[in-house]
Design goal:
Blueprint: E1 9-13, H1 17-29, E2 32-37, E3 48-51, H2 56-62, H3 65-70, E4 72-75, E5 77-82, E6 91-92, H4 95-100, E7 104-108, H5 109-117, E8 125-127, E9 131-136, E10 141-145, E11 150-153, E12 155-158, H6 165-176, E13 190-198, E14 217-221, E15 227-233, E16 239-246, H7 249-262, H8 274-280, E17 284-285, E18 293-294, H9 295-300, E19 308-313, E20 315-316, E21 321-322, E22 325-327, E23 333-334, H10 342-359, H11 365-397, H12 401-412, H13 415-425, H14 450-468
Parallel strand pairs: 1-2, 1-12, 2-8, 5-14, 12-22
Antiparallel strand pairs: 3-7, 4-7, 5-6, 9-10, 10-11, 13-16, 13-19, 14-15, 15-16, 17-18, 20-23, 21-22
Length: 469
């Protein structure tokens, strides 16, 4: 029987960025947890990610702020080009620092993953463990692994990506009971495929752009071809690149059918990419050195094992939890990475969930259902805003009439109005309620986080109780 102030036990399925963030936070909270990852070794594919004021205060709370900044490259602008390499007006992100007191950084995804992995004790993360089934009763949830191992806990968290095995098992139960919404029974829609990679360390004399302390982030929109390609520099003297192929509806359906035939559960796995490399290697890139360069030059400088071809899906599911199971990140909302919000929303999910798990009064089914409902209610507005931004960026890149109008507005917007747009991007700056708060900086006050306030109240009450003993 559950008692007040009883800390729940947690099983996290998936060791991606969201799962590791949740584990790192639970480690600080004293909540017992284990992480299970189906891959024997997680290759943190993908080139890099943007880290700024929506996450940096959390890294301060975790004590890894300086380490994160050491692998990041400060970014102030993004530049968008026509295929002829004629420049549109750059987008200026410098007001963000005025609004929040923090800059924006491009961080190598593999290096970032290494830092987060170090926050988890080795005995609490289990690689090569595939979940076959999940069952539960009034008092506990149980996961059944492919090697016949069984683990029990109060909560199961599905942080295992867009093709989440946890979500699939949960939805099977709901569907059998007639409780699964129709929207959640539909397949994930594809909008594009993406080729992604990162070069080896480059010679600064041959590639002067990497010597610039400011990240050179450049987007090229194909004029008469359904491609967008992106390059940007890192603090590790490498060039990251991404090539997006915008699909027609027919191609998208065919790609979807192929994906399901492959039964691939990891959206950032290694895919045969040579055909797409061959198709796009003559696309021109601008590296500010006066030389004519192409994507093929960058492909040739990239280790083959760091090139991957992925399908990019977009969907926000309606059902995020059931019983003692709850979803996180791509498992409940898959965002197109062109919007740059996918990793951030997953980690914000982890922050809200960690706060609520810490503050839950008992491990009863009723109390867990209540915090899961609070979690989804808090996260949905930010997720839908990110989803809208992602779709907006997708429209710009796929070159339709709507995209052309948005691009014109995007590149001709008055600076005062652009600054108002940026304000919206920094409103969600949650913190962890059970760790020392980081003083707010900047001129824009963040949205109130109910989960943070709830965890802070419990933390302060417990601190008072300990002090009075």
């Amino acid at each position: 029987m559950s008692t007040a102030n009883e800390k729940p036990t947690v099983l996290i399925v998936g060791a991606g960025l969201g799962g590791l963030m949740l584990g790192a936070l639970l480690e600080k909270s004293g909540v017992s947890y284990n992480i299970f990852e189906r891959a024997t070794v997680v290759k943190p594919l993908g080139s890099a990610m943007s880290v700024g004021p929506t996450l940096l205060p959390i890294f301060q709370q975790l004590g890894i702020y300086d380490e994160i900044l050491s692998i990041g490259k400060y970014i102030t602008h993004t530049e968008t080009y026509k295929e002829s390499l004629e420049l549109y007006r750059p987008a200026d992100y410098r007001p963000i620092e005025e609004y929040t007191g923090y800059g924006q950084y491009i961080v190598s995804r593999p290096r970032y993953y290494e830092i987060m992995l170090k926050q988890i004790p080795p005995n609490k993360i289990h690689f090569g463990k595939r979940v076959l089934n999940i069952s539960e009763d009034e008092h506990k949830a149980t996961i059944h692994l492919s090697n016949n191992e069984i683990y029990e806990a109060d909560i199961v968290v599905g942080a295992d990506g867009a093709y989440s095995a946890v979500r699939q098992r949960m939805y099977e139960q709901l569907k059998a009971k007639g409780k699964l919404p129709k929207e959640d029974q539909e397949d994930l829609p594809f909008s594009c495929t993406c080729l992604v990679g990162q070069t080896k360390v480059l010679d600064p004399e041959e590639f002067p752009c990497i010597k610039d302390p400011i990240c050179q982030f450049r987007v090229v929109l194909g004029d008469d071809k359904p491609f967008t390609w992106i390059t940007f520099t890192t603090a590790q003297n490498t060039l990251c690149w991404m090539v997006i192929h915008h699909l027609s509806k027919t191609t998208s359906k065919a790609a979807m059918e192929q994906r399901f035939r492959n039964s691939e559960n990891s959206e950032w796995g290694a895919y045969p990419a040579q055909t797409m490399c061959d198709e796009t290697r003559n696309f021109g890139v601008e590296l500010s050195d006066g030389k004519k360069r192409t994507l093929g030059d960058l492909y040739d400088l990239t280790p083959k094992e760091l090139i991957s071809k992925v399908m990019l899906e977009e969907k926000v599911f309606k059902t995020w939890h059931y019983g003692r199971t709850v979803l996180l990140g791509d498992a409940c909302h898959k965002l197109n990475p062109s919007g740059g919000h996918g990793a951030v929303t997953a980690m914000h999910d982890a922050i809200a969930l960690a706060n609520l798990i810490y503050a839950v009064p008992t491990t009863s089914s009723a109390d867990l259902t209540k915090i899961f409902e609070e979690y989804q209610k808090e996260r949905i507005p930010a997720v839908m805003e990110s989803y809208g931004h992602s779709q907006l960026m997708s429209k710009i890149m796929d070159r339709g009439i709507t995209g052309a109008i948005i691009l014109w507005l995007y590149t001709n917007i008055p600076f005062w109005l652009w600054k108002l747009v940026l304000v919206k991007t920094v409103r969600y700056r949650p913190q962890v309620g059970f760790l020392k708060p980081i003083p707010l900086k900047g001129s824009i006050v963040p949205f109130e986080s109910p989960s943070e306030l709830k965890a802070r109240a419990v933390f302060e009450q417990q601190s008072k109780s300990v002090a009075s003993v």
